[in-house]
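Hey L., structure's done. Input below.
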Amino acid sequence: MEVIWSERARITYFQVLNYLENNWSSHEIVRFINRTEAVIKAIKKNPGIYVPAVKQRNIRRAVIDKNNSFFYQVDEKKKIIFLLTFFDNRQNPQKWKVD
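Output:
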């Protein structure tokens, strides 16, 4: 399956990297990147591996680590996975946005 990153996904991904760069070490940055790639690889093999989001059942939430997740949507017919946004799990879940 092809993976397509939305503009919001790109922005929020780099916000996480920026936060890690400013507050943690390069080790955490590499770990976050590697874990994100591993989760995406798992989704490509089995798009339904993660549970649907509470707000919108056609969107799924993939947990990267205890602090970060991302939301994605699958188009089975076109064989496309859309990465929608990254999310800090410490935030109020009502705050996540995909537009």
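The helical segments are 7-23, 26-45. The longest helix spans residues 26-45.

-- N.
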